[in-house]
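Tokens as discussed.
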């Protein structure tokens, strides 16, 4: 009996450490990240990643919503601290240069309090957008994500099996 209790204790302790400090699964509840992530997808998030690196443009991150820290969101990093971001004619411009590449090959709408005019990203903060700009509550509406709110980097869709993919 003692061996069983010890085994269960150590298994739970290891699971706790892995979940809270290493990697955790998250459920995608909305279509704000379509087509990259669709409702019902489950993703793995590396919670340790940003202890060693700073977020890069294009990273898909999970973070605590700035105005309600009990709520977690998932979005794509668009602008980094100190950069100037502007959305115009469906394109995102960083320091006056339109973003290019597959991760940003979509139309973005310049709506919301922070999406209509040029913004300078504060120190230790990030501007994030959903891939589905038409249906995403993101930095255009509520502002910037402080670095301290970032929980980790999404790196893998693991459910459903037909959707398994490494996220870029």
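Sequence:
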């Amino acid at each position: 009996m003692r061996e069983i209790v010890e085994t269960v204790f150590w298994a739970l302790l290891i699971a706790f450490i892995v979940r809270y400090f290493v990697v955790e699964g998250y459920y995608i509840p909305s279509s704000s990240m379509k087509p990259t992530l669709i409702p019902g997808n489950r993703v793995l998030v590396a919670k340790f990643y940003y202890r060693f690196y700073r977020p890069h443009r294009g990273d898909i991150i999970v973070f605590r919503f700035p105005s309600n820290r009990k709520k977690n969101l998932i979005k794509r990093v668009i602008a980094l601290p100190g950069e100037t971001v502007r959305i115009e004619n469906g394109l995102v411009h960083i320091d006056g240069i339109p973003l290019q590449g597959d991760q940003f090959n979509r139309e973005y709408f310049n709506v919301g309090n922070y999406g209509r005019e040029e913004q300078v990203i504060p120190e230790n903060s990030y501007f994030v957008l959903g891939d589905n700009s038409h249906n995403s509550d993101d930095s255009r509406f509520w502002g910037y994500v402080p670095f301290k709110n970032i929980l980790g980097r999404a790196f893998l869709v693991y459910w459903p099996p037909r959707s398994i993919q490494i996220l870029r």
